[in-house]
Amino acid sequence: MITTKNYFDRTAGIDFDNLPEALAKGHALVSGAAQNDWEHYRKVENIKRVVDAYFEKLDSYLQAHPQSSKTTFAPQQSAKPVRTRTRVEPKQTAEKPKKAVKTAKPSKTKSGKASKAQTPEYKTTPVESLDTDVQFIRRYALMDGKVKTQAQVLTLIHSLQKAILERRIKKTSPYAAVIKLVQEQLIKLYEKMGDAAEIRIAPASLKRYQEIASAQTPMLSIALLKSYVSLNGKRGVDDKIEKLLARMKKAADSGKVTRDDKYVRTISAAYKSMAEHINNKSEVLTIHPAELNGIKALIRGKAGVRRNQKKSPYSNGVGSSAHETNAGNTRHYPEVIPSATLMGMQFETIGLQGKYRQLIGDPSVGFTAMVYGLPKSGKSTLCLDMAHYLAVHHGKVLYCAIEEGFGYTLQEKVGRLKASHPRLYVTDRVPENPGQFDFVFIDSVTKAGLEIEDMDALRKAHPRTSFIFIYHTTKEGRFKGSNTHAHEVDVIIQVENGRARGN
Q1: pLDDT digits (tens, 9 = 90+) for 172-213
Q2: For the whole prediction, is pTM greater than 0.85?
Q3: Is the bond leading into 444 cis (omega within 30 degrees of zero)?
Q4: Which of 49, 68, 143, 449 is most exposed by smallest CB count within 10 Å?
Q5: Burial, 439: exposed, middle or buried (Cβ in 10 Å; 0-12, 13-18, 19+)?
């Protein structure tokens, strides 16, 4: 049987992308639960239940398909998912939410049935971004009446438990009891469902979830600004810019974005910038760095104190601050904090396992690394293998082969290492928007013409993308700006005669 003690040994040769989707997504959940010597698995009963159920399903699959544990496994055609109906009946123990206020009742037709056109309306509060607990309750409510696969249910469980562990959903949440019920029902559903099931939530419970989901509504001004930022630096998007201009005008004409909106000036500046771009027929919409950073701060909620955010007991309102980042949410700390506070912080890591964890540990999301060594020492080989490993287990990867370009040498290396993977991409330059990838390898820094300022700009512009910079050294083991660059990265890897050593 597969257990926590032998899981990574038993699955070392498996290409999870060739397994059924539920098993592939389950591997990501297990990798997260395995962090810090399976700490979450041991301490959180719900995680243990899901992981144990996954071990049982994976073990059964491997016994039925022994060839799937080999790297040469060719996936077989999976059977058509069996459509079953699964009724979800949460217990009626949670308190009725206080945030959602019912303002109207559905009228009934002569037949006694409620009219769809006159569904209940609830009082909502416009917010910059939905609270995490509200987001998950909304996602769960939207599952009602729909056919969901086992993999989709497992993905939602994984995301929910990750948010709880990272304290993005806290015990003090007004919907903590509802979140607990949702979590329990999802786990029960996963344990008993087949390949797919039609989800049915009890009407009374569904009504409560819909009330909560309606308690908050995203501000239209923030949504418009997000669309504006997404167009920065892109070519061939004039049609999208014109559509966004039309959306902004319609929002103003309909009164959905008024002069009282606290972001109306920012919206006006964005509208003017796009209109000038269209009139001047410039190739690229370029947002001024100061404007771009300001808008990104608004979107992330850094402009002032966030909703429901209590002032830090250590804050004196003076000086710069350290910060802790969890899945895109940044919490600020004063410049000086007690060591006990430091030990209580939660940092998001990528969940690295296997040989690369032994080499560099488990770095944070958005880490930077320096790989250096003499020419022909094996740097590119190491990095291509690492890129493939990250693509298989952790996300979307881009390998910038600037040194070799698209040619036989690169093709030979990828073939020899068996590094081809759907989530591993290659290019011969540094793209304009590397932020669409989770990991970016730049081979090499010298050939790319990057200075320390360029590297710093990449990190700041794409905080959730990890960058691995590759350097050539001289025979004396030196390279331009070595000391400065070494101080600016989180991980240093030296490659010598085909062997890598982490510092």
Answers
A1: 888 888 988 898 888 888 888 877 888 889 888 888 888 888
A2: no
A3: yes
A4: 449
A5: buried
